[in-house]
Amino acid sequence: MSVIAVAEQGVLTLTLARPEKKNALSAAMYQQLSAALQQASSDDSIRVVLLTGSDNCFCAGNDLADFLAGGSLNHEHPTVQFLHILSQFDKPLVAAVAGLAIGIGTTALLHCDLVYATADARFQLPFTALGLCPEAASSLLLPRLIGYQRAAQYLLLGEAFDGAQALQMGLVNQLATADALLGLAQQKAQQLAALPAQAVQQSKRLLKQPMHQQVQHVLHQELAEFEQLLHSDDCKAALNRFFRR
Predict the structure, then answer these.
(1) Residue 146's CATH number
(2) Share above pLDDT 70 across residues of the chain, in percent, rounded to a whole number
(3) Which of 13, 105, 92 has its CA nearest to residue 50?
């Protein structure tokens, strides 16, 4: 299992555990994450989901070879299924981020309710360098969060930024040292789990509601353009360079 799921005191902790690939997400991991979120949604004993990785790596993005082997980006593709489930998840999502958070490792955080990170965490959205476009509705959510110019800096140029910058931008709620990060995230998750569940879930729904339809529309649009770009000469050349490294 590359995703370890542990439920305790109303909190389901999902740990990405594929250190040999820097927690790059495979099709199997997407399926495990989707199944865990669906089960958590329907299980009244689970009130909060906490997503984390290892002490020095949250997620290095997609496992590109595995992703490309998954076929067309339709509703059956594991990545597509996960993005839709993540973007519509109805219970609080908390993330603890240390080390690398590349591609989906950053865009997934835009759908979390609380994000905690280390100051030296490294966030990056290298889509254009691969001949690709943003995903996970990040082309909508990131400019809304941090402003257009900074979003363009990170989505067009693909420049990296650290945890301190992410805190200043509002992507991260609070910083912690590496050894205190998980404890802080667990504390906040348990704090949420101790609150009246219906009130918390209704409040999240109200917070998300104004942009819900727009997020789903942009998510679909991005995936359509992402798939088109996958077949472009620029993307093929970029992926060939990536696999030769």
Answers:
(1) 3.90.226.10
(2) 100
(3) 13
